[in-house]
Amino acid sequence: MTLIIILVVVAILVIGCISIYNTLVKLRNNRENAFANIDVQLKQRHDLIPQLVATVKGYAQHEKELLERVTQARAAAMGATTINDKIQAENALSSALAGLKVSVEAYPELKANQNFLQLQGEIADIENKIAATRRYFNSATRELNNAVQTFPSNIFANMFGFKKEPMFEIAQEERATIEKAPEIKF
User: Fold this and answer.
1) 32 CB burial (10 A radius; 0-12, 13-18, 19+)
2) How far apart are CA 14 and CA 10, in angstroms?
3) Beta-carbon count within 10 A of 71 CB
């Protein structure tokens, strides 16, 4: 009788361990899938940037340095291989695009150009989609991090190499801009 009880307890423990491990794997895969969704949106953004730069270049010859910075940031973002490298590169690209948006304000003819307006609309749409997929990615990352850090799954997470993963957060350069109150002009 004691042997049966011991076997049942061991079986329950084994099933619990398998369940926790499988949950950790599912959460990690969910996070990776969420980043794959971000990659799709980032690819679209990367494809639109050369068109935007070419359109702006026609109007803003003296903004060469800014346009080169956007182009370099795009190249770095496309060359990043790991999720963490992509997060850093995309934050740099977002910062460069924000600088381009500010620069465009000096060109009223450009702001009225139909090609530019269409590109600007497409980029705004993609930026909104990226924001939505980033929220989903961060939610998946939070779920994984919670499982990695809470008992008893943290024991198995450490045993099997699961670790706390970084969120896709706003770059420090952008944070100062976002936290600043908007300027309203009439």
Assistant:
1) middle
2) 6
3) 14
The token pair that represents 107 in the structure block: 């060109």
- Sorting pLDDT into bands at 50, 70 and 90, what band is 147? very high
For residue 147 the two structure tokens come to: 């499982």
More confident residue, 181 or 58: 58
Q: Which ranges in the chain belong to alpha helices (H)?
A: 2-59, 64-79, 83-104, 108-112, 114-149, 153-159, 172-179
Tokens read off for 111: 């702001």
> How distant is the alpha carbon of residue 11 from its chain centre?
41
Return phi, psi of residue 2, to 5°.
Answer: -65, -35
Cα–Cα distance measured from residue 97 to residue 114, given in angstroms and rounded to the nearest whole number: 19
